[in-house]
Amino acid sequence: MSLICAISNEVPEHPCVSPVSNQVFERRLIEKYIAENGTDPMNGQPLSEEQLVDIKVSHPIRPKAPSATSIPAILKSLQDEWDAVMLHSFTLRQQLQTTRQELSHALYQHDAACRVIARLTKEVTAAREALATLKPQAGLVAPQAVPASQPAAASAGGEPMEISEQVGMTPEIIQKLQDKATILTTERKKRGKTVPEDLVRAEDLSKYRQVASHAGLHSASVPGILSLDLCPSDTNKVLTGGADKNVVVFDKNEEQIVATLKGHTKKVTSVIYHPSQSVVFSASPDTTIRVWSVTSGNCVQVVRAHEAGVTGLSLHATGDYLLSSSEDQYWAFSDIQTGRVLTKVTDESAGCALTCAQFHPDGLIFGTGTADSQIKIWDLKERTNVANFPGHSGPVTSIAFSENGYYLATGAQDSSLKLWDLRKLKNFKTITLDNSYEVKSLVFDQSGTYLAVGGSDIRVYICKQWSEVLNFTDHTGLVTGVAFGENARFLTSAGMDRSLKFYSL
Q1: What sign does the CA torsion over 155, 159, 160, 161 have?
Q2: 26 bridge partner residues
Q3: CA distances from 166 to 200, 255, 344, 458 (A)
Q4: Bridge partners of residue 359, in order along the sequence
Q5: By the 8 A CB rule, do 249 and 294 touch?
Q6: Taking the model in full, what pTM does it have?
Q7: Residues of the chain where predicted confidence (pLDDT) is lower than 50
Q8: How far apart, in Å, do the first and last CA atoms of the chain sit?
Q9: CA 360, 364, 370, 375 torsion: positive or negative?
Q10: Which residues of 360-373 are buried (b: 16+ CB within 10 A; e: fewer)?
Q11: Distance CA 117, CA 215 (A)
Q12: What's the pLDDT tens digit per position in 150-186?
């Protein structure tokens, strides 16, 4: 309902009411009338401007003039509105184009800055390594060169971390991870549940026995092989890390050492063989991760991602990035080409050392084990803890994802082996081992059909039934590593008795 001025019979712009006649007026008109007559126009009683009471209305709608109600007038009104909209749209497009140009310029500057930072970091690292190399020549005894360069190493580790915090996980890296995961998932769906034709059957696997044993790979003075891995593309190439601080590449067919890689200042607890390059990785309690060239026998990259001993190592499916866990409670994701730490994360609520780390076959999630018996599942892209698996009662010693992507096997210092379904996020099977059994290594074969456990002895289980098909007690010390050859044609193990053993028909 609209207010109508008693004088003009139109909707007032500034309505007010007369307390004398209780009529509504346009303030402009009533003020002019009072100035001339001094009375209310409706009843002639005296009235002053101070007596008028303003009426508050929200945006009064003025009725259209009678001339605007004809069809030509309406069409003209619509045309005017259309022209106004088009002009506004044109202005917005101009502003959008300007903003795009500014954004493009800003991104270009950011990219250029990142490149400069990366180049400077590389130059600083090269200068520090050159300085560390020159120190022995300046009169220091050669063995002291490594400890002398440790403070520089720590600062060298600190600087890339600071830069990494700025660069972090770039959209290009995340897209690369996502594309690889999509390819792997598609391949897995194509394979379905079919078992490879060449895979050794359970009845043949149960007949395996020891066919070779090699004890000369590592030093006898500090005995013990602490880690083991096979080259995924050629499982005849064996990689071991020892208590003697050395990394050894061994050829199973030739039965000889291909390379002995020296550089760590403490024992080597984790090793990985690159699937497609002649490159291997190793980690140690000396806080470093080293990248080695097998052909040249040299260390080509040192990744300083942690401030305490490195406890776990896992290579991403792209072959370009490393996951590491440490006693400093952090996990780190590093670029193996540049040696730079891309991201480094800890669970502040837990405040507990990490004991192992393993990528899921798709590479978008991974698991870490902790010293307080927890298994944590992390989303790599978001760098967030997405699931926790409690249940063990001792520090987690080993975790392994099945190739099917659904199962996770975990072992801890509670003499038990637990299997988890990643779809339902629950424990569906617990295998209780002997009271004093120590689980040190867990690994599924490439098809996800068999699960091998290394520790106090070696046991192989067939998945789904989870029944034991093999048990070896040939090692005289604790078994620290176990691995399957291609299509499970052989099994290999390494232990604290300094021996590398092979089992097959």
Answers
A1: positive
A2: 15
A3: 49, 48, 12, 46
A4: 366
A5: yes
A6: 0.66
A7: 137-166
A8: 98
A9: negative
A10: bbbbbbbbbbbbeb
A11: 47
A12: 333 333 333 333 333 435 788 888 899 999 999 988 8
**What pLDDT does 313 receive?**
95
Return the C-alpha torsion angle 6, 9, 13, 19, nearest 10. 10
State how far the Cα of 389 lies from the Cα of 282, in Å rounded to an integer.
28
- Nearest of 349, 347, 386, 354 to residue 373 by alpha carbon: 354
Cβ contact 282:268 at 8 Å: yes
Cβ–Cβ under 8 Å, residues 343 and 333 = yes
- Residue (of 464, 455, 462, 408) closest to 434 by Cα position: 455
What is the token pair recorded at 160?
């890339």
Half-sphere exposure of 388 (CA within 13 A, CB side): 12
Residue 383 structure tokens: 């760098």
SS3 119: helix
pLDDT at 278: 92
Tokens found for residue 442: 């867990």
d(CA 404, CA 419): 14
Confidence (pLDDT) at 167: 55
DSSP-derived pairing of the beta strands 299-303 and 330-335: unpaired
